[in-house]
């Protein structure tokens, strides 16, 4: 983040507004730190703050992240999208401003115990 503050025009001011919004909305400091790191990475990649980018640039960056990621969860990708969404919210812009993708939640079935396991618990 410090590198982005030094190298990207307007990033320090953007980060101040972002921190204020995250705090006012009751999110934790760790959430702010996490999202800020991802927003800083986008800013450093382009040399501009994300609100100065267009949706094609963001999509190219997200495509780059997907290709770079080796983990099936793609958590870095997800946190980048979440960080950008929160940033747009803090700047009073809609998600459509950067055409951010929707991230589907994995649907997991609940763990069910067998009759034998239930009896073992009660034994």
Note down, in words, how this protein is organized.
The relative contact order is 0.13. Helix 2 packs antiparallel against helix 3, helix 2 (11-24) packs across helix 5 and helix 3 packs across helix 5. It is built from six helices and no strands. By secondary structure, it is an all-alpha fold. The chain has one domain. The radius of gyration is 19 Å and the shape is elongated. Keywords: DNA-binding. InterPro entries: DNA_brk_join_enz, Integrase_recombinase_N, Integrase_SAM-like_N.
Write a short abstract of this structure.
The chain is mostly helical.
Attribute tags:
123 residues, mainly alpha, 6 helices, 62% helix, Integrase SAM-like N-terminal domain-containing protein
Task: Itemize the secondary structure elements and their pairings.
Elements: H1 2-7, H2 11-24, H3 29-46, H4 55-68, H5 75-90, H6 115-122
Helix pairs in contact: 2-3, 2-5, 3-5
Overall mean pLDDT stands at 85
Query: What Rg, in angstroms, do the CA atoms define?
Result: 19 Å
Which H/E pattern describes the elements? Answer: HHHHHH
How much helix, percentage-wise, in residues?
55-70%
Shape: elongated
The overall strand count is 0
State the end-to-end distance: 55 Å
Largest sheet: none
Low-confidence stretches: none
Domain Integrase SAM-like N-terminal: 14-87
Keywords: DNA-binding
Organism: Epilithonimonas hispanica
Pfam family, one: Phage_int_SAM_4
């Amino acid at each position: 983040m410090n590198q982005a503050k030094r190298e990207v025009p307007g990033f320090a001011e953007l980060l101040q507004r972002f921190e204020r919004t995250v705090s006012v909305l009751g999110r934790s400091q760790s959430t702010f730190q996490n999202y800020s790191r991802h927003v800083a990475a986008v800013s450093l990649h382009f040399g501009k703050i994300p609100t100065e980018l267009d949706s094609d640039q963001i999509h190219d960056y997200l495509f780059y992240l997907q290709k770079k990621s080796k983990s099936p969860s793609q958590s870095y990708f997800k946190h980048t999208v979440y960080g950008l969404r929160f940033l747009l919210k803090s700047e009073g812009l809609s998600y459509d401003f950067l055409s951010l993708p929707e991230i589907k939640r994995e649907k997991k079935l609940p763990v069910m115990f067998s009759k034998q396991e239930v009896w073992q618990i009660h034994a």
